[in-house]
Design goal:
2 domains, Rossmann fold, alpha/beta, rod-shaped, six-stranded mixed beta sheet
């Protein structure tokens, strides 16, 4: 049922036929149907030897006035069969042989502001918890880790080892850096280093509570010609939603973080106390990969669902005396 619901929820604006040439079979079936109707028409068969009125009075054509007849069901059958063969579709699906070669580079802000306690125990600790949830959701996907404040450094190269990622994540804090001032633009060099060999569209995930104009300008230039995206995970309570007052993230701060994400073709995901923000981040990562690789993804053939309509029609031909009424 999940496959059917996914199919129905597709984008109907992309509706097309996978094998449109099979529509030509409707011409052949139409001619054959016309021949069957003509063969059962007694008026046509006998009009050369007697009048039409006489034939109609002398003949007993039981199928003439019936809604369901072999000829009409044959016409329905051929139309449905032709639609199945042309392959109607409006949605793409991930191939079972599709390999995810993209990378996720996590850039964690460990500057002084991340020690604020508007979300307990602190913004930094909650950010680590969120990263662990995301890693668990992604499985063995490729992940790298960058720590930044006033400067940025590769804390862990790209790996598929979830446990190794967790280990490096646990020891990260602001004491590792000489400068605790947050400079998001500093992540560009280590990001470029980690993504230098990747061929698939990838994602840079920045977990932070602040940014600046310099970072937005530099990210705009750096990602202008890139297929990669930047997702900004805003770590902090939303002050405007009734959080911990002035120590939370203001609407202005959230808007600035949103601009940072847009500079890298991505979105800003606000912090939530449940796992909904984790799921949004995960979905955004996947959407970026599939959006760029649309040409490589197969179309989902929706025609086979019509087979369930053909089965009861075919069963009619096993009914005793059915074929004798042609």
């Amino acid at each position: 049922m999940s496959e059917l619901s996914t199919l129905i929820s597709g984008d109907l604006t992309q509706f097309h036929f996978m094998r449109p040439l099979w529509l030509l079979t409707l011409i052949t079936f139409g001619l054959f149907y016309k021949t069957l109707v003509k063969q059962d028409d007694l008026v046509v068969q006998w009009q050369s030897v007697m009048s039409k009125n006489m034939v109609e009075h002398l003949s007993l054509n039981q199928a003439h006035g019936r809604i369901i007849s072999p000829n009409r069901l044959f016409l329905v059958f051929t139309i449905l069969a032709s639609i199945i063969m042309v392959g109607p579709t409006w949605q793409q699906q991930a191939s079972p042989f599709f390999e995810d070669n993209s990378e996720l580079v996590i850039a964690l802000d460990v500057s002084e502001s991340m020690n604020k306690t508007d979300i307990q125990p602190s913004r930094l600790e909650r950010a680590k918890q969120k990263i662990n949830q995301l890693i668990e959701l992604r499985g063995d996907a490729k992940t790298g880790l960058i720590v930044y404040g006033g400067s940025a450094h590769v804390a862990m190269p790209v790996t598929k080892d979830k446990e190794l990622t967790r280990y490096f994540l646990d020891v990260l804090d602001g004491s590792l850096l000489p400068d605790n001032e947050s400079k998001p633009e500093s992540v560009l060099k280590p990001v470029e280093k980690l993504l230098s060999q990747v061929k698939a569209p990838s994602t840079v995930l920045m977990l932070t509570d602040k940014t600046n104009e310099a970072a937005i300008d530099k990210l705009t230039k750096a990602f202008e010609q890139q297929n990669h995206q930047v997702i900004v995970w805003a770590i902090g309570e939303n002050a405007s939603s009734g959080g911990n007052g002035e120590i939370g993230l203001s609407e202005s701060q959230l808007n600035t973080l949103s601009l940072l994400a847009k500079a890298g073709h991505g979105k800003m995901i606000p912090f939530t106390h449940d796992s909904s923000d984790v799921e949004l981040v995960y979905k955004q990562i996947k959407n970026n990969l599939f959006a760029v690789n649309d040409s490589a993804l197969p179309w989902l053939d929706a025609g086979y669902w019509l087979l369930f309509l053909l089965l009861p029609i075919q069963l009619m031909w096993f009914r005793r005396g059915w074929t004798l009424q042609w």
